[in-house]
Amino acid sequence: MPQGIGTRADRTVSSRGYHAGPGRPATAWHGSATQHNGLVIEVDPRRFEEMVGTALDGLPEELGQLMRNVAVTVEHGAGPPGLLGLYEGIPLTSRTSQYAGVLPDHITIYRQAICAICRTEQEVADQVRRTVIHEIAHHFGIDDKRLSELGW
Prior knowledge:
Layout: E1 18-19, E2 26-29, H1 45-57, H2 61-66, E3 70-75, E4 85-88, E5 105-110, H3 111-116, H4 121-139, H5 144-149
Parallel strand pairs: 3-5
Antiparallel strand pairs: 1-3, 2-4, 4-5
Helix pairs in contact: 1-4
């Protein structure tokens, strides 16, 4: 499994995945709006991957160093209806001393779903950032109820 996002220079984001360094419950984020807005913006897949990379680079270094065994991928297809992102894995708060030899946690960001609710490239970038942060919060054991209380 990857080791953590503290080493930012060598990570990549692609449809194959962002690998963040060396049981899988899932937590999905539906976002505030999940229906097509009638004015869909199409963002090039490479540009979208750059947005995900920028969102990851924007994390505080200390937070990035705490992430372990996480892969972040971009799904360019539609993804499950209503989802903008999905966290699958074992949150840090649930890991015990027996946590070893498991597959990486996996965060998926759904390009078409995000583009479907945005009108401009800047809105897409903002939503990507919000979705990435939301899914990473699940990695740290923060559930949807608490994220809502925090305004996320």
